[in-house]
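[SOLVED] Need 3D model of a two-part complex

Original post:
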Amino acid sequence: MMTAIETKARAARAAANRLASVDTATKNQVLRDLAAALATRRDEVFAANRADMDAARAAGLPGPKLRRLEITPQGLDQMIAGLRQVADLPDPVGAVVKEYTTPSGLAVRKVRVPLGVIAMIYEARPNVTIDAFALCFKAGNACFLKGGREAAHSNALLADAARAVLHDHHLPEAAVEVITSSDRDEMRHLLTLSEYIDLVIPRGGTELIRFVHEHARMPMVQHFHGVCHVYVDEFADRDKALAICVTGKTSAPATCNATECVLVHQACAADLIPELVQRYTTAGVEVRGDDAVRKLAPEAHAAADDDWGHEFLDMIVALKVVPDADAAIAHIQRYGSNHTDAIISENPDRQARFIAGVGSSCVLTNASTRFNDGFQLGLGAEIGISTSKIHAYGPMGLEELTTQRYVVTGSGQTR
Amino acid sequence: MMTAIETKARAARAAANRLASVDTATKNQVLRDLAAALATRRDEVFAANRADMDAARAAGLPGPKLRRLEITPQGLDQMIAGLRQVADLPDPVGAVVKEYTTPSGLAVRKVRVPLGVIAMIYEARPNVTIDAFALCFKAGNACFLKGGREAAHSNALLADAARAVLHDHHLPEAAVEVITSSDRDEMRHLLTLSEYIDLVIPRGGTELIRFVHEHARMPMVQHFHGVCHVYVDEFADRDKALAICVTGKTSAPATCNATECVLVHQACAADLIPELVQRYTTAGVEVRGDDAVRKLAPEAHAAADDDWGHEFLDMIVALKVVPDADAAIAHIQRYGSNHTDAIISENPDRQARFIAGVGSSCVLTNASTRFNDGFQLGLGAEIGISTSKIHAYGPMGLEELTTQRYVVTGSGQTR
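Solution:
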């Protein structure tokens, strides 16, 4: 007998076969209709979210998690705007990536096609539910969304809204399935269904990634943590360095592209660090520094060993003095997470050395780590930032939710 | 304590870090020097291969497997030519895939970088050892090659030749590691080393793929079997159909892109099938047909249930009459392997319907399934044909052995 989740996965596979050939105009209308439905059903959305928030508060969920769980009026406006933005993006399905004729006279096209069924496992952030559905659907994929049990009411309501719109368009409701249970056995079972699910995207912390890594029998593209570094070189522009280091933490401390650790070349440490620490402190950021930092700025806290390579996701930053660029690169190779790293330097050789030495999905010179983001890098939207090297590395937008195959037109060629 | 294989994997990781920045000219020279070395060491290669062949014959290895294991003089010439061809191909590393400036003034480049360490697990085909090393190395990757215990002497000699050339160029010999043991425990252990190995490519039959699928803890791109179909539509050109169906099997029956099953529209069955079966029989191909086929061509054998979806890799073909194009598509969806499928038809609507209905990595109209091949499709060379949708789908050449990351140049941008 098929389990309930297997039945759902099978329905998702059938839905994916149907979605692969839905025309762009219909897909865009579904996204716009869902935007309109959410605008109409605002009170329902807030009521469902309130039920989640009340339960989370009662369970003593910490502040940053509560803030991610909450759907504010502005947050709902952003979800609605996001749906319309994805509707406005070009459809990746059917796009011809390459086109050429071989010496044998074959007309070859390399064409984007949907992946099929995508399972996404993430935290209690209801906005991700709508973003992920919008991107998966526009790229012709069905999706299984498993988004943190604390968000169960919110996610169920949002998925219900999406399924109602699909139904109105005579499209299979199984195109989106929200799983609200957090039963580990059920998750393990889901992760074995490689016959129906083409890709799993875990997006979250160490424990979640490890669990999926351990149990998934289908390909995985992980969105792991961002331990993002800024290296301030001896040839840095002081003002740029200060602005980039401070705002890289303060503008959105709980995001994966926030700056978690700043490495300062010893040649500019004395000039830079006292002011940097002061600015951080004024902005409410706790600085955890090594001995060299604390000599220059005694108000900094002492960094513990596990502050290096730590994703704080909070108003905390680690700060260290390094003897040279190579030491900065070595530190990042050891403690970084292949997410995002930046160098502040006006010296092209140093920039090149840093770029060559640091293998992250996004390496920046003289810009904030916060720019490793699908919107900021021009992808239009993103489902998250991949720290896997296979299939997609960095922000995953619509194109990264497709694959490419060969469509070949001959005139009787044999070999 | 580190196991021997872990030590090797760690060395491969270090070698990969070094290979990532080796310039194109040096890489090409290594490949040309290896070609020259193999030309000089012909007798050694044949002697090593003879040791494998003798043992394989004594062990009773079947004919097709013996033919794959043997290094003939022509086979060695092809390996040598292959090395020179890969040297002549453009270097994918550092290629800029996209380049643009964002509204925020960031100069964004999406750049190809090596994957790192690639493990490849394949059958006793020594030519694959050289091809795989050439492609992995040119794309800046270190490789772990595990190629069928029957080929142990041949592979050890070939790897030794490669390592000697690497040594001469002051490059790490750990850039290529050949594993000759077929110990399952050792394989299982290798497949857990996700810290050192970025990608595993299993290329082979059901049992091998299942084993790797079960045990691999790193990403996998599988090169699974090719159950390639040709559908002869009612609007087919008769001569094209006959030529494509017959040569698609006879030109290289043991390859993954050989035609294994022909589906014929009932409207042209009476006209086509008697001659098709006669041509197959004349060429030495055993035809296994359904009842409708055997009514038209009594010399055909009766197909058993498991002949549908079977990869014969031999001079055998399955043949079936279908009521219409949809039935052909449904047959392929059920029995195909997402490898290669072709339609023979002069009718554009039928072609489009077939292309939309069949999801394989390569879909052809009016051309042989044998064209799904890196050389034939213009990739220059291939490490195999992926039947995974993630990362690469279809022939994998140099580009598919890299990933892409973002290199961003700012002028002090914050957000």
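Edit: Chain B touches chain A through 66 residues (CB under 8 Å).
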